[in-house]
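Bug #77: duplicate submission created two jobs. Keeping one. Sequence:
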Amino acid sequence: MSLIPLAAPADAGVGHDPWWVVGIKVLLIFVFLVVLTLFNIWLERRVVARMQHRIGPNVHGPFGLLQSLADGMKLMFKEDLMPKGVDKFVYVAAPVIVSIPAFLTFAVIPFGPTVKIPFTDTYTRLQLTDLPVSVLYVMAIASIGIYGIVLGGWSSNSTYSLLGGLRSSAQMISYEVAMGLALVTVFLFAGSMSTSEIVAAQGSHQTLHLFGADIPVPGWYAFLLFPSFVIYVISMIGETNRAPFDLPEAEGELVAGFLTEYSSMKYAMFFLAEYINMATVSALATTLFLGGWRAPWPISIWDGANSGYWPVLWFVGKMMCFIFFYIWLRGTLPRLRYDQFMKLGWKVLIPISLGWILLVATVRAVSRESSGSTQRSYLLVVAGIILLFAIVPMFLPQKKTEKTEPVTEAEFDAFAGGFPVPPPLVDSKSETDVRSKEGSRG
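Kept job's structure:
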């Protein structure tokens, strides 16, 4: 039986699946995320140990692969403590509010094209569902998970937990704005907010019509919209509370932040949500900027690279590259100060995003201008560049100039303390003057 369909039925795809196919997809996504979390914890320990010339987990299972499972079992059987004075309902609900949205965001991520299910005559797309505003759905659901961190810190009846929750709320507002602005240019080029349509838009080379010439550019938006890609990568690290932006749980100053009063499985659910959110933003970055499930070059030269179940392998490979980048940052960069973190979001990322959106919108308008003259297109591009350089400096941080006030020297009084003292010697010149005056008196 061939796993590569030659011609899928017209009604195959999202929204036309039988109930049992939907159930299988939900189960596979859940199992995939749980297993991926266990693997990512093991991978982080091994990679960081390699960077620090240590061994890392190597006892439980081959290469220590069962270490994450052993830690999960340990947390499951640990004593569950509840401090006095906590808001019990919110305290228990906070880990659930964090973990459930982490699973829901994968509902609109496409893993591959339409395929035939083995041993059946049913065709389905490798995606649970799709929406006209799928990307906005992901951002909305991901923002709900941040409320669990805020409520967990507030309900713990601890100053350290409260400060961690407040930091998380400020972090959410700061970097979700930058992340949303970074995705606007993707919507402009793809002409859609659907994840599957954005992947399809990156399937071939883009062509810009500027100055009477066709300029080919690579299909992946990571190359075409490189500033947006960089801003999104920085924002997704801040959004998931990972080093060097793990300020809501800064151990050096907040003990463990919002996690200070949690233990056992509630503690484990927070970490489960953190690693699943890492996978979510990595999968979204793969979908929006790296062509999604489409094979990279030179694998794309093979005719069957983007058909059947092979695209799942390319998608997971790209996603794991982002996961490795997460781990690499944690093992190399120190934690930022909180004021530096806020300045980066509000005074650097957001202004640059606004200027970049303005420039990209101008270029798109010029490229779609089919009947306009070359001079008109040129003027539009120049106007966009001028506006970019005029707006961005208004939001960039400016250096503070310290004003030096003139120092007025008070008249020296030798008998101010009740007994005579010699005048202060400021420098060699003043010392010479004092000695000459004493010599003239003698």
